[in-house]
Sequence to fold (373 residues):
Amino acid sequence: MMSDGPGPHVRMFDYLQQYEALREEVLAAVERVLSSGQLILGPEVAQFEESFTRFLGADGGCVGVNSGTDAISIALRTLGVGLRDEVVTVANTAVPTVSAIRETGATPVFCDVDPGTCLMNLNELEDRITARTKAIVPVHLFGNVVDIPRILEIVGSRHITVLEDCAQAHGARLHGRMAGTMGTVGAFSFYPTKNLGAYGDGGLCFSRDADVVERMRSIRMYGFEDGYYSEREGVNSRLDEVQAAILGIKLVHLEVWVRNRQRLASRYDERLAPGIERVEPAEGVQHAYHLYVVKVDDRDTVRRSLEEAGIATSIHYPHPIHRMRGYGFLDCRQGDLPQTEALAERILSLPMYPELPEESVDRVCEALNSAVG
Ligand SMILES: *Cc1c(COP(=O)(O)O)cnc(C)c1O
Fold:
């Protein structure tokens, strides 16, 4: 438990205020679905898939699935990734990026990251590509956006597909283009803390390629096209009608919520002492600020003094994936990814959600400025 500091506690994330504002609409939608007689893959999912496609502003289609992890693994399966293939990604991501790659049987290969943006270092990407590389999974970490067009240039005419992990980047843009619309597939998560969160698990795949969309649609339900007949090997991973109806209500507000995140981030930018290092938005990016992350030395002490001031902080993520026991079989060593490893010691996530009061941001800044000052 946190000790009592001055004023109410500042949380990392809190969905209750948003629920308060949407309660009647949400409960009415739940009632509508439950009394409709159709709970799985009915009109709500189809409508949400259409609305999300419109939100992305690109020609293509969406497939609602059970989680962000499944969105990645279903997309990889669809793109033909399997045993003996290699998939290049980063090690400073959430574990699901890598567990999804493993679900296909493929081997993740880690590219180091840029110390300023924390995104995949594209200067090193070519060196990670081998004859076995089948896909690249760049992660739009924290709501920042990887330069996908540059990855496509590096890949050139080789048969390597690019899948964007957009779990933290709903509403982020690069030179005006939405994250998730530049690669072959964009994979989104609707885990409750994400920029668009369900009241439970959910995920979605977007592609501009109609053929890819149809195959993903088939794979999310046992490889069926019509009837009980598997055209290909599939899984069971469906977004359910109740979550789709709720997500449809919330999607209407997503742009405003992302703008609120951006406004709060500017306030952090202005009020944090100039000496405090922040994760930098990449060139040409409209950052969606899923998280606002700074870099500090002596992080445990800094966290403790913020905690004493009643301010929650978090670390996304404290252990690079190649250093976890569960991934020891990948045989990566300490020192293999120097920037990733160095960042893991210093990154610190500050409270960030669209309803976070500006006064709370000011309190966080004051406490952090004095903790590092
Ligand atoms: C949350 C997250 C995922 C996985 O999403 P789930 O819906 O929790 O399965 C994948 N990648 C990143 C970067 C994430 O933050």
